[in-house]
What does this fold into?
Amino acid sequence: MSALISFVSVAYWTRIARRDKARERKQDETRQSIEQARHERDDILMRLVKIETSLAVIDQKVMPISTALQTILVKELTHFHTPRMDHLLSRIGPPSELTDQEEAELTAALLERTRDMGNLISDSERDAAFILPAIMRRAKVECALLQSVMARAYVLKYVAVESLPDK
It folds into this structure.
């Protein structure tokens, strides 16, 4: 009888010990998978932050081609010209501060500059005066496009999801 009781008690406690070890193993595996998921999430977040930082730097440094060309042409045209034309050239932008009437006045002055002036201006400056009105229109469109894109800024929201161990 005592042998039977000893056998049953050993079997009972052995079974409980195995169950506890299995439960601990399962909990360890769950903890490891949760920790691995956290590391992966942290890696993804770090990469996302790097991408956002790079995008912010690019947004600050990118200047549309037409705007850059406009700036070069304005520098070339503001040497010794009339004060009114220099004032209008200084207000070209970006963004353009010229009214439609001032823009028409500047375009007329630039067109006059291409015809008259004779030897007072170089051929390069004459060409710059000829193409600047078209570049001004393109730069204005690009500026408006960039502002509309920036107005629709995307906002990312982070949501943490943890998998809980099964009960």
About this structure: Residues 2-61 form the longest helix (60 residues).
